[in-house]
Amino acid sequence: MRPYGYTVDRKATIADEALVIGDAIARVLGGESLRSIARSLNDQGIKTYNGFLWRSQGLKRILLQPLNVETGLVSEADHDKLKEILTDPSRRQSHRYELAHVLTGGYVRCGLCANAMVYRGTSYACPVAPAGCGRVRIGAPALEAYIRDLVFSLLTTPQTRAGLRRAESRAKTADKALKAANGRLTQAAVDYAKGDISRPAWLALSREHQRLTAAANRERRRLAATGHLPKPLTPKTLAAWWDKASTTTKRELLGLVLDHVKIKPAPDRRRPHDGSVDARRLKVIWLKLEENP
Asked: I need a surface site. Which of 67, 113, 118, 239 has the fewest CB within 10 A?
């Protein structure tokens, strides 16, 4: 039996499976739950190498396998952080209700400590230490509606629509760049084992491979998400589509243009809350559709 992502001899990666691993690692580090990632993979029709559906525990074992560090799919620092997150005893309860909310999984970040905020009751809240500072909270329904409307407005601009039409071309370019990087990294692993290249050179290639893996995964998600968009693309058709879409599909839509939102502390907690969003507390970080891999 071979490990997921690698050949039987464990000396080379399998490109498509390595993409899944790299993407899942980035999503966990961004605050998303294993259950959410597994559901997303199953919704996309991506199976384990033996054709089974994804489960949280199986995904966890794959993400924590030492080979991921040895082959450069993840840095040692990120692997240590990943291990700390996935072995945290409080994690199981922390993600219990996440699947029902579109902004979990790293879309909402604390403006003080930059950690991903989690859903609590009817709010998004920064978790307490060691996962966060526990000092920032914001109402979920109003925030979700506010971000949804911002995304709708951006998606319907001529510039964004033109960028989305080029999604297939960008995905092919990113995959081509990653395929070339896979070859370089595989050869570098052999050269490093022989002592022909230095450790800094090996680590530099590994970091470049991680960057290209993230770029390819981003463009693949964008390409998949564009296929769900209604036609014609207007605020009205988007609103009707949103009401019927699953949480996973909504998240994919947000991921076309939204990187994350930073939430600042409330300026005055004693002020009566009217259910609206104070835009001064938000810093929205948008993705650039013309990013090159």
From this structure: 239
